[in-house]
Amino acid sequence: MSAAPEFHVSHVHDEPAQWPCPPADGYVADHLDQLPDLPPHTELIDGSLVFVSPQTRFHMRAMRLLENYLVQAAPPELDVIREMTITLGPKNRPEPDLLVAKAEADTGPGQTTFQPKDVVLAVEVVSPESEARDRDTKPRKYAAAGIPHFWRVESDGGLPVVYVFELEPATKAYVPTGIYRDLLKVGVPFTIDIDLTEINPRRQ
């Protein structure tokens, strides 16, 4: 365990604010549960805290659409989780927008994270501020940790495009298995059929 993080005070517009001062060797995964007053959805990437910018309407609606379909389609032995971290190792605890985990991995209402061995699918909806992380950093880390399926969701004129990847176990890298517009229909990690045009049903 690293030394306990310290805080220093920064004055912005004459209002004092506390900013965490990281340990010399960086934060570790447990710090996300210990640091006071972290912004919602703070992630740990390579020992550094990553703060999430306010999300766009597309991001919110894409998450809601996929979550609703996944919840309806998931078999009883799997659970669909929104915005909860995966502890990939001591220095990495990213938070996918959605994940599908083994139901047996539920440790109770106080649970704050999952282990990669219990996650079968991680989903990232790309935002302008998170493009590099969602397209490169996080999928590389998910693959190295052995998470078998990854979806990346991008906006094309306000409609979602889903890039689907599957883990190649020999190389521990993701390989693309499809790009889906209008309709996402796959058989793994379970059978699912999503009408992507329903992202904004009020305008149909």
UniProtKB/TrEMBL annotation:
CDD domains: DUF820-like (cd06260)
Name of the protein in its database record: Putative restriction endonuclease domain-containing protein
Family matches, as InterPro entries: Nuclease_put_TT1808 (IPR012296), Restrct_endonuc-II-like (IPR011335), Uma2 (IPR008538)
Domain of life: Bacteria
Stretches assigned to coiled coil: none
SUPFAM superfamilies, alphabetized: Restriction endonuclease-like (SSF52980)
Annotated ranges, domain Putative restriction endonuclease: 32-179
